Request: fold
Amino acid sequence: MTGRVMIVEDSATNRMVLKAKLTQAYYDVVEAEDGETALEMVLREDPDLILLDIMMPGIDGFEVCRQLKLDPRTLHIPVIIQTALDGREDRVRGLEAGADDFLTKSPDDTALMGRVDSLVRMKVMVDELALRGQTNFGIGNDRLLEVSRATHFHDSHVMVVSTCANAALQISECLQDDVECKLAYAAGAAEAMRLFDENNFDAVVIDGNASDGDPLRLGVMIHARPESRQTAVLLIVNDDSGGVASRALSLGINDYLSSPVDLSELVARTRSQLRRKNYADLLRENMRSSVVDANTDALTGCYNRRYTLPYLDAQIDTCRKREAQIAVIMLDLDRFKSVNDRYGHSVGDQVLKEFAERLSANVRSVDLVARLGGEEFMVVMPDAQGGLVSEIAERVRQAVADPPFRVSHAGCDEDILITVSIGYAILTEHETADAAMHRADVALYDSKNGGRNRVTEAKAA
Reply:
Protein backbone atom coordinates (compact mmCIF):
# COMPACT_ATOMS: atom_id res chain seq x y z
CA MET A 1 0.00 0.00 0.00
CA THR A 2 1.34 3.44 -0.93
CA GLY A 3 -0.01 6.92 -0.46
CA ARG A 4 0.77 10.38 0.89
CA VAL A 5 1.38 10.92 4.60
CA MET A 6 1.60 14.31 6.30
CA ILE A 7 3.85 14.49 9.37
CA VAL A 8 2.92 17.31 11.77
CA GLU A 9 5.72 17.60 14.32
CA ASP A 10 7.70 20.54 15.73
CA SER A 11 10.88 18.46 16.18
CA ALA A 12 12.93 18.35 12.98
CA THR A 13 14.73 15.25 14.25
CA ASN A 14 11.48 13.37 14.85
CA ARG A 15 10.19 14.40 11.43
CA MET A 16 13.37 13.12 9.82
CA VAL A 17 13.13 9.74 11.57
CA LEU A 18 9.47 9.28 10.66
CA LYS A 19 10.04 10.38 7.10
CA ALA A 20 12.84 7.84 6.68
CA LYS A 21 10.60 5.01 7.91
CA LEU A 22 7.69 6.00 5.69
CA THR A 23 9.82 6.67 2.62
CA GLN A 24 11.40 3.25 3.00
CA ALA A 25 7.86 1.82 2.81
CA TYR A 26 7.31 3.83 -0.43
CA TYR A 27 5.04 6.47 1.06
CA ASP A 28 5.17 10.03 -0.24
CA VAL A 29 5.79 12.31 2.76
CA VAL A 30 4.98 15.98 3.33
CA GLU A 31 5.91 17.83 6.52
CA ALA A 32 4.49 20.59 8.69
CA GLU A 33 6.28 21.99 11.73
CA ASP A 34 3.20 23.14 13.63
CA GLY A 35 -0.60 22.89 13.70
CA GLU A 36 -1.32 26.17 11.93
CA THR A 37 0.92 25.20 9.02
CA ALA A 38 -0.73 21.78 8.80
CA LEU A 39 -4.24 23.26 8.60
CA GLU A 40 -3.07 25.65 5.88
CA MET A 41 -1.40 22.86 3.87
CA VAL A 42 -3.89 20.03 4.17
CA LEU A 43 -6.24 20.91 1.30
CA ARG A 44 -3.38 21.69 -1.03
CA GLU A 45 -1.41 18.52 -0.25
CA ASP A 46 -4.44 16.18 0.02
CA PRO A 47 -2.79 13.57 2.29
CA ASP A 48 -4.11 10.05 2.76
CA LEU A 49 -3.14 10.08 6.44
CA ILE A 50 -1.88 12.58 9.03
CA LEU A 51 0.65 11.72 11.76
CA LEU A 52 0.01 14.40 14.34
CA ASP A 53 2.09 15.36 17.41
CA ILE A 54 0.23 16.60 20.49
CA MET A 55 2.74 18.93 22.12
CA MET A 56 3.47 21.73 19.64
CA PRO A 57 3.83 25.51 19.77
CA GLY A 58 0.60 27.31 19.04
CA ILE A 59 -2.42 25.03 18.86
CA ASP A 60 -1.87 21.51 20.12
CA GLY A 61 -2.56 18.27 18.28
CA PHE A 62 -5.95 17.75 19.93
CA GLU A 63 -7.22 21.07 18.57
CA VAL A 64 -5.75 20.44 15.11
CA CYS A 65 -7.56 17.12 15.02
CA ARG A 66 -10.84 18.69 16.11
CA GLN A 67 -10.61 21.34 13.37
CA LEU A 68 -9.83 18.73 10.73
CA LYS A 69 -12.86 16.69 11.77
CA LEU A 70 -15.12 19.77 11.74
CA ASP A 71 -14.34 20.51 8.10
CA PRO A 72 -16.32 18.31 5.65
CA ARG A 73 -13.45 18.62 3.18
CA THR A 74 -10.98 16.97 5.58
CA LEU A 75 -13.04 14.96 8.06
CA HIS A 76 -12.48 11.74 6.10
CA ILE A 77 -8.67 11.94 6.35
CA PRO A 78 -7.40 9.43 8.97
CA VAL A 79 -5.41 10.94 11.84
CA ILE A 80 -2.91 9.14 14.08
CA ILE A 81 -2.00 11.19 17.13
CA GLN A 82 1.54 10.64 18.41
CA THR A 83 2.84 11.70 21.79
CA ALA A 84 5.54 10.96 24.31
CA LEU A 85 2.78 10.62 26.89
CA ASP A 86 1.24 7.22 27.57
CA GLY A 87 -1.58 8.07 29.92
CA ARG A 88 -5.08 6.67 29.54
CA GLU A 89 -6.64 10.13 29.62
CA ASP A 90 -4.55 11.32 26.67
CA ARG A 91 -5.39 8.26 24.58
CA VAL A 92 -9.09 8.68 25.20
CA ARG A 93 -8.94 12.45 24.70
CA GLY A 94 -7.24 11.94 21.34
CA LEU A 95 -9.81 9.40 20.17
CA GLU A 96 -12.68 11.60 21.33
CA ALA A 97 -11.17 14.52 19.41
CA GLY A 98 -11.74 12.43 16.28
CA ALA A 99 -8.37 10.71 15.91
CA ASP A 100 -8.43 7.30 14.29
CA ASP A 101 -5.58 6.03 16.41
CA PHE A 102 -3.20 7.01 19.17
CA LEU A 103 0.43 5.86 19.43
CA THR A 104 3.28 6.70 21.76
CA LYS A 105 6.39 8.13 20.11
CA SER A 106 9.14 5.79 18.96
CA PRO A 107 6.70 2.90 18.56
CA ASP A 108 7.68 -0.45 17.19
CA ASP A 109 8.11 0.03 13.45
CA THR A 110 5.85 -2.94 12.69
CA ALA A 111 3.03 -1.52 14.81
CA LEU A 112 3.39 1.94 13.25
CA MET A 113 3.41 0.66 9.67
CA GLY A 114 0.55 -1.70 10.38
CA ARG A 115 -1.59 1.21 11.58
CA VAL A 116 -0.54 3.41 8.67
CA ASP A 117 -1.22 0.74 6.05
CA SER A 118 -4.61 -0.11 7.55
CA LEU A 119 -5.82 3.49 7.72
CA VAL A 120 -4.55 4.37 4.24
CA ARG A 121 -6.49 1.37 2.87
CA MET A 122 -9.58 2.77 4.56
CA LYS A 123 -8.94 6.23 3.08
CA VAL A 124 -8.57 4.70 -0.41
CA MET A 125 -11.96 3.03 0.00
CA VAL A 126 -13.63 6.27 1.09
CA ASP A 127 -12.06 8.20 -1.78
CA GLU A 128 -13.22 5.50 -4.17
CA LEU A 129 -16.82 5.78 -3.00
CA ALA A 130 -16.69 9.58 -3.17
CA LEU A 131 -15.24 9.45 -6.69
CA ARG A 132 -18.03 7.22 -7.94
CA GLY A 133 -20.87 9.19 -6.39
CA GLN A 134 -19.52 12.76 -6.26
CA THR A 135 -20.55 12.30 -2.66
CA ASN A 136 -20.04 15.64 -1.01
CA PHE A 137 -22.46 17.23 -3.44
CA GLY A 138 -25.06 14.49 -3.13
CA ILE A 139 -25.32 14.22 0.63
CA GLY A 140 -24.63 17.66 2.01
CA ASN A 141 -22.08 18.82 4.55
CA ASP A 142 -24.48 18.90 7.48
CA ARG A 143 -25.29 15.21 7.11
CA LEU A 144 -21.63 14.26 6.74
CA LEU A 145 -20.70 16.17 9.88
CA GLU A 146 -23.61 14.69 11.82
CA VAL A 147 -22.52 11.14 11.00
CA SER A 148 -18.82 11.80 11.62
CA ARG A 149 -19.37 13.34 15.08
CA ALA A 150 -22.01 10.98 16.49
CA THR A 151 -21.48 9.76 20.07
CA HIS A 152 -24.57 7.57 20.50
CA PHE A 153 -25.56 4.75 18.17
CA HIS A 154 -29.08 3.61 18.99
CA ASP A 155 -29.50 1.98 15.56
CA SER A 156 -26.12 0.23 15.51
CA HIS A 157 -25.86 -3.47 16.32
CA VAL A 158 -22.66 -4.71 18.03
CA MET A 159 -21.65 -8.29 18.89
CA VAL A 160 -19.27 -9.27 21.69
CA VAL A 161 -17.50 -12.61 21.22
CA SER A 162 -15.89 -14.22 24.26
CA THR A 163 -15.78 -17.63 25.93
CA CYS A 164 -15.50 -15.83 29.28
CA ALA A 165 -18.98 -14.84 30.44
CA ASN A 166 -17.68 -12.33 33.01
CA ALA A 167 -15.51 -10.51 30.45
CA ALA A 168 -18.36 -10.47 27.93
CA LEU A 169 -20.74 -9.04 30.53
CA GLN A 170 -18.31 -6.30 31.51
CA ILE A 171 -17.69 -5.29 27.88
CA SER A 172 -21.38 -5.46 26.97
CA GLU A 173 -22.51 -3.36 29.92
CA CYS A 174 -19.87 -0.75 29.13
CA LEU A 175 -20.92 -0.48 25.49
CA GLN A 176 -24.60 -0.52 26.40
CA ASP A 177 -24.19 2.38 28.83
CA ASP A 178 -21.75 4.62 26.94
CA VAL A 179 -22.22 3.80 23.24
CA GLU A 180 -25.95 3.08 23.59
CA CYS A 181 -25.92 0.48 20.83
CA LYS A 182 -27.84 -2.76 20.49
CA LEU A 183 -25.81 -5.66 21.91
CA ALA A 184 -25.56 -9.36 21.16
CA TYR A 185 -23.30 -11.96 22.78
CA ALA A 186 -21.64 -15.05 21.29
CA ALA A 187 -19.78 -17.59 23.42
CA GLY A 188 -17.42 -18.55 20.59
CA ALA A 189 -16.72 -18.49 16.86
CA ALA A 190 -19.39 -21.02 15.88
CA GLU A 191 -22.13 -19.11 17.69
CA ALA A 192 -20.86 -15.81 16.27
CA MET A 193 -21.15 -17.05 12.68
CA ARG A 194 -24.61 -18.46 13.44
CA LEU A 195 -25.71 -15.04 14.68
CA PHE A 196 -24.31 -13.47 11.50
CA ASP A 197 -26.59 -15.78 9.52
CA GLU A 198 -29.55 -14.25 11.35
CA ASN A 199 -28.57 -10.57 11.77
CA ASN A 200 -26.50 -7.74 10.35
CA PHE A 201 -23.89 -6.32 12.73
CA ASP A 202 -22.14 -2.98 12.46
CA ALA A 203 -19.24 -3.97 14.70
CA VAL A 204 -17.83 -7.02 16.46
CA VAL A 205 -15.56 -7.03 19.53
CA ILE A 206 -13.56 -10.29 19.66
CA ASP A 207 -11.97 -11.14 23.00
CA GLY A 208 -8.79 -12.84 21.83
CA ASN A 209 -7.92 -13.73 25.41
CA ALA A 210 -11.02 -15.90 25.74
CA SER A 211 -11.44 -17.53 22.37
CA ASP A 212 -12.39 -21.07 21.44
CA GLY A 213 -10.19 -20.90 18.36
CA ASP A 214 -8.08 -18.53 16.29
CA PRO A 215 -9.53 -15.00 16.78
CA LEU A 216 -7.83 -13.79 13.58
CA ARG A 217 -9.53 -16.53 11.61
CA LEU A 218 -12.90 -15.45 12.98
CA GLY A 219 -12.23 -11.86 11.88
CA VAL A 220 -11.27 -13.04 8.40
CA MET A 221 -14.37 -15.25 8.20
CA ILE A 222 -16.58 -12.28 9.06
CA HIS A 223 -15.05 -10.13 6.32
CA ALA A 224 -15.17 -12.99 3.81
CA ARG A 225 -18.99 -13.03 3.86
CA PRO A 226 -20.52 -10.51 1.44
CA GLU A 227 -23.20 -9.60 4.01
CA SER A 228 -20.66 -8.73 6.71
CA ARG A 229 -17.76 -7.46 4.61
CA GLN A 230 -18.22 -3.91 5.93
CA THR A 231 -18.60 -4.92 9.60
CA ALA A 232 -15.98 -3.28 11.82
CA VAL A 233 -13.94 -5.89 13.71
CA LEU A 234 -12.11 -4.94 16.92
CA LEU A 235 -9.72 -7.46 18.48
CA ILE A 236 -8.59 -7.57 22.12
CA VAL A 237 -4.97 -8.76 22.14
CA ASN A 238 -3.34 -10.26 25.22
CA ASP A 239 0.22 -11.31 24.37
CA ASP A 240 1.56 -9.55 21.27
CA SER A 241 5.01 -11.12 21.37
CA GLY A 242 4.19 -12.92 18.13
CA GLY A 243 3.07 -9.79 16.31
CA VAL A 244 -0.63 -10.68 16.51
CA ALA A 245 -1.77 -7.05 16.35
CA SER A 246 0.21 -6.21 13.22
CA ARG A 247 -0.91 -9.42 11.54
CA ALA A 248 -4.51 -8.59 12.46
CA LEU A 249 -4.29 -5.21 10.71
CA SER A 250 -2.67 -6.76 7.63
CA LEU A 251 -5.57 -9.23 7.43
CA GLY A 252 -8.14 -6.44 7.46
CA ILE A 253 -9.06 -6.37 11.17
CA ASN A 254 -10.14 -2.79 11.69
CA ASP A 255 -8.65 -2.08 15.12
CA TYR A 256 -7.23 -3.71 18.22
CA LEU A 257 -6.84 -3.02 21.93
CA SER A 258 -4.28 -4.42 24.34
CA SER A 259 -5.30 -6.40 27.39
CA PRO A 260 -6.14 -5.61 30.13
CA VAL A 261 -8.77 -3.52 28.40
CA ASP A 262 -9.27 0.09 29.38
CA LEU A 263 -13.05 0.39 29.09
CA SER A 264 -12.91 4.12 28.28
CA GLU A 265 -10.58 3.39 25.39
CA LEU A 266 -12.83 0.54 24.25
CA VAL A 267 -15.77 2.95 24.16
CA ALA A 268 -13.77 5.55 22.22
CA ARG A 269 -12.47 3.03 19.68
CA THR A 270 -15.92 1.44 19.22
CA ARG A 271 -17.45 4.85 18.61
CA SER A 272 -14.71 5.64 16.10
CA GLN A 273 -15.33 2.41 14.19
CA LEU A 274 -19.10 2.89 14.18
CA ARG A 275 -18.73 6.48 12.95
CA ARG A 276 -16.40 5.32 10.21
CA LYS A 277 -18.75 2.54 9.13
CA ASN A 278 -21.81 4.78 9.15
CA TYR A 279 -19.91 7.38 7.14
CA ALA A 280 -18.89 4.78 4.55
CA ASP A 281 -22.44 3.38 4.48
CA LEU A 282 -23.74 6.87 3.77
CA LEU A 283 -21.26 7.23 0.91
CA ARG A 284 -22.28 3.88 -0.54
CA GLU A 285 -25.96 4.71 -0.36
CA ASN A 286 -25.40 8.09 -1.98
CA MET A 287 -23.26 6.49 -4.66
CA ARG A 288 -25.96 3.96 -5.45
CA SER A 289 -28.73 6.53 -5.65
CA SER A 290 -26.75 9.09 -7.64
CA VAL A 291 -25.45 6.83 -10.38
CA VAL A 292 -27.93 4.00 -10.61
CA ASP A 293 -30.04 5.41 -13.43
CA ALA A 294 -27.48 6.99 -15.72
CA ASN A 295 -24.53 4.75 -15.17
CA THR A 296 -25.75 1.22 -14.54
CA ASP A 297 -27.06 -1.64 -16.62
CA ALA A 298 -30.80 -1.98 -16.03
CA LEU A 299 -30.78 -5.80 -16.06
CA THR A 300 -27.83 -6.64 -13.82
CA GLY A 301 -27.29 -3.47 -11.81
CA CYS A 302 -23.61 -3.43 -12.85
CA TYR A 303 -21.97 -0.27 -14.16
CA ASN A 304 -22.32 0.22 -17.89
CA ARG A 305 -19.70 0.90 -20.54
CA ARG A 306 -20.43 4.64 -20.65
CA TYR A 307 -19.54 5.01 -16.99
CA THR A 308 -16.76 2.44 -16.78
CA LEU A 309 -14.37 3.60 -19.48
CA PRO A 310 -13.94 7.18 -18.17
CA TYR A 311 -13.79 5.77 -14.65
CA LEU A 312 -10.96 3.43 -15.65
CA ASP A 313 -9.00 6.33 -17.12
CA ALA A 314 -9.45 8.30 -13.88
CA GLN A 315 -8.42 5.34 -11.74
CA ILE A 316 -5.29 4.77 -13.80
CA ASP A 317 -4.22 8.37 -13.17
CA THR A 318 -4.99 8.05 -9.45
CA CYS A 319 -3.11 4.78 -9.01
CA ARG A 320 -0.09 6.06 -10.89
CA LYS A 321 0.12 9.12 -8.68
CA ARG A 322 0.04 6.75 -5.71
CA GLU A 323 2.55 4.39 -7.36
CA ALA A 324 -0.03 1.64 -6.96
CA GLN A 325 -0.95 -1.14 -9.37
CA ILE A 326 -4.29 -1.40 -11.14
CA ALA A 327 -5.69 -4.41 -12.96
CA VAL A 328 -8.42 -5.12 -15.50
CA ILE A 329 -10.30 -8.43 -15.55
CA MET A 330 -12.36 -9.39 -18.61
CA LEU A 331 -15.02 -12.11 -18.29
CA ASP A 332 -17.25 -13.82 -20.84
CA LEU A 333 -19.88 -16.51 -20.17
CA ASP A 334 -19.14 -19.73 -22.01
CA ARG A 335 -21.59 -20.86 -24.71
CA PHE A 336 -24.15 -18.29 -23.61
CA LYS A 337 -25.75 -18.19 -27.07
CA SER A 338 -26.81 -21.83 -26.62
CA VAL A 339 -28.67 -20.84 -23.42
CA ASN A 340 -30.69 -18.22 -25.30
CA ASP A 341 -31.27 -20.58 -28.23
CA ARG A 342 -32.47 -23.44 -26.05
CA TYR A 343 -34.39 -21.66 -23.30
CA GLY A 344 -35.15 -18.20 -24.67
CA HIS A 345 -33.96 -14.73 -23.73
CA SER A 346 -35.94 -14.58 -20.48
CA VAL A 347 -33.86 -17.45 -19.09
CA GLY A 348 -30.74 -15.83 -20.53
CA ASP A 349 -31.59 -12.70 -18.57
CA GLN A 350 -31.96 -14.77 -15.38
CA VAL A 351 -28.50 -16.23 -15.96
CA LEU A 352 -26.96 -12.80 -16.53
CA LYS A 353 -28.49 -11.43 -13.34
CA GLU A 354 -27.31 -14.39 -11.28
CA PHE A 355 -23.85 -14.20 -12.80
CA ALA A 356 -23.60 -10.51 -11.91
CA GLU A 357 -24.56 -11.31 -8.31
CA ARG A 358 -21.97 -14.07 -8.00
CA LEU A 359 -19.32 -11.87 -9.58
CA SER A 360 -20.02 -8.92 -7.27
CA ALA A 361 -20.06 -11.16 -4.20
CA ASN A 362 -16.57 -12.49 -4.92
CA VAL A 363 -14.58 -9.31 -5.60
CA ARG A 364 -13.51 -6.64 -3.11
CA SER A 365 -15.81 -3.81 -2.11
CA VAL A 366 -13.52 -1.27 -3.81
CA ASP A 367 -13.54 -3.14 -7.15
CA LEU A 368 -15.85 -1.92 -9.90
CA VAL A 369 -17.97 -4.50 -11.76
CA ALA A 370 -19.24 -3.54 -15.21
CA ARG A 371 -21.30 -5.14 -17.96
CA LEU A 372 -19.84 -4.05 -21.27
CA GLY A 373 -22.55 -5.67 -23.36
CA GLY A 374 -24.19 -9.05 -23.93
CA GLU A 375 -22.43 -11.65 -21.79
CA GLU A 376 -19.19 -9.66 -21.54
CA PHE A 377 -18.23 -8.21 -18.15
CA MET A 378 -15.23 -6.35 -16.74
CA VAL A 379 -13.78 -5.74 -13.26
CA VAL A 380 -11.53 -2.76 -12.46
CA MET A 381 -9.24 -3.49 -9.49
CA PRO A 382 -7.34 -0.48 -8.07
CA ASP A 383 -4.48 -1.04 -5.62
CA ALA A 384 -4.21 -4.72 -6.57
CA GLN A 385 -1.12 -6.91 -6.62
CA GLY A 386 -0.78 -9.70 -9.18
CA GLY A 387 -1.27 -12.54 -6.75
CA LEU A 388 -4.46 -10.99 -5.41
CA VAL A 389 -5.87 -10.48 -8.93
CA SER A 390 -5.22 -14.12 -9.80
CA GLU A 391 -6.78 -15.30 -6.54
CA ILE A 392 -9.95 -13.26 -7.00
CA ALA A 393 -10.32 -14.25 -10.67
CA GLU A 394 -10.05 -17.92 -9.73
CA ARG A 395 -12.53 -17.43 -6.90
CA VAL A 396 -15.03 -15.92 -9.35
CA ARG A 397 -14.51 -18.79 -11.79
CA GLN A 398 -15.24 -21.37 -9.10
CA ALA A 399 -18.27 -19.47 -7.81
CA VAL A 400 -19.80 -19.44 -11.30
CA ALA A 401 -19.09 -23.10 -12.09
CA ASP A 402 -20.64 -24.42 -8.88
CA PRO A 403 -23.42 -24.54 -7.87
CA PRO A 404 -25.53 -24.69 -11.07
CA PHE A 405 -27.75 -21.74 -11.95
CA ARG A 406 -31.37 -22.25 -10.93
CA VAL A 407 -33.73 -20.73 -13.53
CA SER A 408 -37.47 -20.72 -14.11
CA HIS A 409 -38.51 -22.19 -17.47
CA ALA A 410 -41.92 -23.30 -18.74
CA GLY A 411 -43.39 -23.10 -15.26
CA CYS A 412 -40.67 -25.24 -13.67
CA ASP A 413 -37.35 -24.66 -11.95
CA GLU A 414 -34.32 -26.10 -13.71
CA ASP A 415 -30.59 -26.20 -13.02
CA ILE A 416 -28.20 -25.06 -15.76
CA LEU A 417 -24.44 -25.55 -15.69
CA ILE A 418 -22.73 -22.23 -16.48
CA THR A 419 -19.01 -21.50 -16.70
CA VAL A 420 -17.00 -18.36 -17.42
CA SER A 421 -13.72 -17.71 -19.19
CA ILE A 422 -11.51 -15.02 -17.69
CA GLY A 423 -8.48 -13.00 -18.75
CA TYR A 424 -6.74 -10.30 -16.76
CA ALA A 425 -4.00 -7.73 -17.23
CA ILE A 426 -2.04 -5.69 -14.70
CA LEU A 427 -1.26 -2.31 -16.22
CA THR A 428 2.34 -1.51 -16.95
CA GLU A 429 3.89 1.86 -16.14
CA HIS A 430 2.79 3.83 -19.22
CA GLU A 431 0.05 1.59 -20.60
CA THR A 432 -3.28 3.08 -21.69
CA ALA A 433 -6.67 1.74 -20.69
CA ASP A 434 -7.36 0.58 -24.26
CA ALA A 435 -4.08 -1.31 -24.43
CA ALA A 436 -4.67 -3.02 -21.08
CA MET A 437 -8.21 -4.01 -22.04
CA HIS A 438 -6.89 -5.42 -25.31
CA ARG A 439 -4.32 -7.53 -23.48
CA ALA A 440 -6.97 -8.78 -21.06
CA ASP A 441 -9.24 -9.57 -24.02
CA VAL A 442 -6.50 -11.59 -25.68
CA ALA A 443 -5.98 -13.50 -22.41
CA LEU A 444 -9.73 -14.07 -22.24
CA TYR A 445 -9.77 -15.66 -25.68
CA ASP A 446 -6.75 -17.75 -24.72
CA SER A 447 -8.97 -19.10 -21.94
CA LYS A 448 -11.72 -19.78 -24.49
CA ASN A 449 -9.36 -21.50 -26.90
CA GLY A 450 -7.76 -23.45 -24.07
CA GLY A 451 -10.99 -25.22 -23.21
CA ARG A 452 -13.07 -22.51 -21.45
CA ASN A 453 -13.82 -22.28 -17.71
CA ARG A 454 -10.33 -21.07 -16.88
CA VAL A 455 -8.30 -17.99 -15.92
CA THR A 456 -5.44 -16.64 -18.02
CA GLU A 457 -3.03 -13.84 -17.20
CA ALA A 458 -2.22 -11.49 -20.09
CA LYS A 459 1.21 -11.64 -21.60
CA ALA A 460 3.54 -8.76 -20.77
CA ALA A 461 3.03 -5.62 -22.82
